Amino acid sequence: MSNTTKWDRLSEASLFVALVALGVGLRLYFRDLPNFAPVAALALFSGYLFRGWLTALSVPLAVMAISDYFIGGYAWQVTVVVYASLALPVALRGVVRRWMSLKHNGLKSALTATAGLVTCALGSSLIFYLTTNMACWIWFDTDHTASGLLHNYLSALPFYRYTVAGDLLFAFGLFGVHAFWAQGARHFAAAPALVPLPVRERASGNKS
Question: How far apart are CA 87 and CA 64, in angstroms?
Fold first, then answer.
């Protein structure tokens, strides 16, 4: 194993542990604010940063599992839906990598990156809102009609605003720190830049 490969693996493992620790700490700290959490934003960031799907998916799932140990969980049906909906933003990795490329500078590139991040963060919030409230309606609501479902969604709107606020704030925080670090490393080579780790297909010349 080359020194470069060892360094890549060590960097990936260190980043994984740091992101999980950060996510658990923030979720526990903001536990009194309903649905205000960094998990979906971490899923977006992990999908962007890590080369492997499994590693990226493991970040939000590990954050949820560890923090739920202290906070408490839900009925298993809702737990499955909650975990799946918070891990789903990893699937947006291709979109995020295209829009958040640091290879181009300028106002247009910055606006494109901002619009892309806002779109992905809001999409993550909407997915969580729709799927989790649908799950609650299916398994725990007694009014299984269209009006009952609508009532369920309307009742959850006050919580949805916290979801949106958290996803936007934490997404901009994570990607903002990443961009600042990467751009700074271009001018000051003292610290390695946090760039998306190369995919395993690197030997064939392909990039994700």
Answer: 10
> Could you give the residue ranges of the DSSP H alpha helices within the chain?
3-29, 39-49, 53-71, 76-87, 93-99, 107-140, 146-155, 157-187
**Is the Cβ–Cβ distance between 152 and 206 less than 8 Å?**
no
**Would you tell me how many other CB atoms lie within 10 Å of the CB of residue 23?**
27
- How many C-beta atoms surround the C-beta of residue 49 within 10 A? 25
The closest alpha carbon to 93, from 110, 116, 122, belongs to 116
**pLDDT tens track for 171-182:** 999 999 988 877
Six token digits for residue 35: 């649905």
Distances (CA, A) of 92 to 44, 100, 158: 7, 12, 26
Give the DSSP per-residue string, 110-166. Answer: HHHHHHHHHHHHHHHHHHHHHHHHHHHHHHH-S--SHHHHHHHHHHTHHHHHHHHHH
3-204, CATH topology level: Arp2/3 complex 21 kDa subunit ARPC3 (1.10.1760)
pTM, whole model, 2 decimals? 0.82
- The single-letter code of the amino acid at 145 is T
What does the domain layout of the chain look like in residue ranges?
A: 3-204
Give 30-45 pLDDT, tens digit per residue.
Answer: 999 999 999 999 999 9
Map tokens 């360094």 to a residue: 7
